[in-house]
Amino acid sequence: MNRRRWLQMMGAGAAALSVERRSQAQERAAQATRGMAAPKIKDITVIATQPAGSRLTVVKITTDQDGLYGYGCATFTQRAELVNAAIEKYLRPLLLGKPTDRIEDTWQMCYDSSYWKNGPVLNNAISGIDEALWDIKGRQAGMPVYDLWGGKCREAARMFSNASGATPKDVVENVRQSMTRGYKHVRVSAGNAPAAAGLHEGAVFERGPALRRMLQVFEACRKELGFDIELMHDMHERYGPREAIQFVKDCEQFKLYFLEDPLSPEDLAYFRQIRQQCATPIAMGELFNSPHEWMPLITERLIDYIRVHVSQAGGVTPCRKMALLAEQFGVKTAWHGPGDVSPVGHTAQLHMDLSSYNFGIQEGGIITGVQAEIFKGCATFKDGYLWASSAPGWGIEVDEKLAAKYPFGSGDGARGSLNGGWGDLRLPDGTVIKQ
Questions:
Q1: Which one of 34, 76, 92, 152 is most buried, by most CB atoms within 10 A?
Q2: Which residue segments constitute the domains of the chain, with CATH numbers given?
Q3: Which residues are within 8 A (CB) of 322 and not within 5 positions of it... i.e. 6 or more apart?
């Protein structure tokens, strides 16, 4: 055997040995992974804090693996203590010792565990559990949650700002200020005109004058600002069907980005009349709890934006299904994100926005002040867009000691006597109106 042949045989043998060793190592790793127990829920705690006026409920799930935990938003600020009790007294005993990796199964179990379903207290409690489990899943994988859902469809999520004022001129000026900060979408509203004396001592709301003032606001904005700025308005379910349908038709000339919540959930059948009579884009859903409410509006293409409050609907697991359904019917997402959503909740919405093809617009999520000190790792805002962190999970870490310095009751203001709840709003004759 010559030297060249001998070297060839030795090289082939070494290569074969290397391949064999690599294969054995991969098999040992696969065996180890298959044998690795899924994390189990060791504890569930509620972080109840009120650092900026609204009562926030954040769920923390701790696992039996050191350093592995997750956070989820369960904020229902008007009935916060009921949600906290539902988590601590009912869902925690149900879930202790359960695996963290069966998110869908856990959601269904929690949803069915009270027998009566679709209530805001239960849904918000489940949302905290659900989002915390997704956070854990992302931390395990070393990925942001949006990567677990297929990755980004866009680099950042566009946002809208809010502009109000005592007069149409004031509103126009405040819209201009939003535009200087990079916003191209602004939700406008008008201060209430002096109301007629009511037959009661509470706040008075007059529907006709309110609608006429909003038409004046839209007219002034289009005259002064043109059509390059996208305008929106929240009707807040305060009007009867006839008034709402007429107003939506009157707004068609102003080419709005959307009109929000023109009708209450009790009047869903009237959306068919709105769609038949005009092309004004409609957003709806912040009060929805049940698929029976949003399903017909989506599948009949009666709205343009689904506006559901994510924790109110039970968390990101059902809302991702809602987004996928809406995509098939040409409906975009515009999740409800006011100040009484925790920074964890805003971040969860942002991850859905980035990974949903039919994303419309993001409300809220610019976290500043003491909230940014408590909830570290929040998204950043630039030129009208919200940019998510690429850290694993939601990318949020909570300073629980600092959160504890702002217990419920701190900064309640006018709602302090109502334990964080809302009061009533009435017509001049004393009739309670929906809001």
A1: 76
A2: 157-393 (3.20.20.120)
A3: 291, 294, 298, 306, 308, 313
